[in-house]
C-alpha cells in the first residue's frame, strides 16, 4: 500500500511514522508513506498557499492550485482514494478502515487555516473523512489516526492477526474487560471465571460483558 500525505507540515509525521507497530510496518514495507508539501508547487516568490475567502469572513483558505499540482505530481495506482480530512466528512469507523486497508493507494489532503477552496473538494477529492464532531488546528492529526487505523489491519503489521478479530467494534460491540497478573491487586480480584480454565464459560462471560458494556457506554451501536 502506498500512502501519500499532502501537508504543509511534513515534520509533523517524523516521529509517529517511526514509532511502534506503525514504524515497523513501514520499515518492513507493509506500507510506504510519502510526504508532499503544496508549498513546493507555488509559483510566486513568497510561496503563498493561502488567501482571503471571497465574500469576506474570518481567516484564510488554502488555495486550490498548489493542492491540485501536488496531487497531480503523484503516481496513480489502480485502486486509489483521495481523502480530505475535514470535520464535515464521514466519521472514521472500523468498517471504513477495513475497506481502505484493501486499497493500493491513499492520498490524504491535510487542511489548515479555515480549510481549503471548495473546488478541491468538488473536482479532486473522492472522499471526505472526519475524526469526530470537533475542530482541530490542522488535518495532520486525523490523517495520522487514519493511517494508524488502516495500516494495523494490513497483513503482517500485527503479530497475532487473530487478535484483530476480538476487539472493540467487531460484531458491533465494544471489547470485554481484560485482566492480567497478579490475580489480586490491592484487594481487587480478577473475576473467578477467567481463572477457571473453562473456555466455554469464559467465552460466554466475555460475550455478556461486551453486550453489557456496549449498552452502558455506546447504546447507539446496538
Question: How would you explain this protein's 3D organization?
Answer:
27% of the residues lie in helices and 18% in strands. The protein is an alpha/beta fold and 222 residues long. The chain folds into two domains: 2-151, Alpha/beta knot; 166-221, Trp Operon Repressor, Chain A. Strand 1, helix 1 (20-27) and strand 2 form a beta-alpha-beta unit. The longest helix is centred in the last third of the chain and has 19 residues, at 199-217. The two termini are 33 Å apart.
Give the count of structural domains: 2
What is the CA-based Rg, rounded? 22 Å
How confident is the prediction overall: mean pLDDT?
A: 94
State the end-to-end CA separation: 33 Å
- Element pattern in H and E: EHEEEHEHEHEHEEH
CATH class of the largest domain: Alpha Beta
CATH architecture annotation name of the largest domain: 3-Layer(aba) Sandwich
Shape: elongated
**β-sheet strand percentage:** 15-25%
> What are the low-pLDDT stretches, counting only 5+ consecutive residues below 50?
none
What class do helices, strands and sheet pairing give?
Answer: alpha/beta
CATH fold topology of the largest domain:
Alpha/beta knot
Total count of helical runs of at least 4 residues: 6
The CATH superfamily title of the largest domain: SPOUT methyltransferase, trefoil knot domain
Helicity range: 25-40%
Largest sheet: 5 strands, parallel
Kindly report the spatial arrangement of strands forming the biggest sheet: 2-1-6-5-7
Strand element count: 9
